[in-house]
Amino acid sequence: MKVKVVIHEAEEGGYWAEVPAIPGCATQGDSFEELLQNLYEAIEGCLSVDVEPTNPSDKSRTIEIAV
């Protein structure tokens, strides 16, 4: 599996990165090598979360909003 990662230089030094395909998946590192190691751990952690499906009732509805 390949995912695109956006890497930023942090103002206080080091780097931080986000994975646009996985909302909320981000990490940081003091060096580029540390950032890469943390990225593998962050992606694995984000993908290993079990998300239980919801069972909406007849009176509920699901919508999608942008914030």
SSE topology:
Elements: E1 6-9, E2 15-18, E3 26-29, H1 32-47
Antiparallel strand pairs: 1-2, 2-3
Give the radius of gyration: 16 Å
Output the number of helix runs: 1
> Low-confidence spans: pLDDT under 50, at least 5 residues?
none
Largest sheet: 3 strands, antiparallel
Structure characterization notes:
With 67 residues, the protein is α+β, with helices and mostly antiparallel strands. Helices cover 24% and strands 18% of the residues. A 3-stranded antiparallel beta sheet has the order 1-2-3, covered by helices on one side. The mean pLDDT is 87.
Features:
67 residues, alpha+beta, three-stranded antiparallel sheet, 24% helix, elongated
Question: What can be said about this structure in brief?
Answer:
By secondary structure, this protein is an alpha+beta fold. Helices cover 24% and strands 18% of the residues.
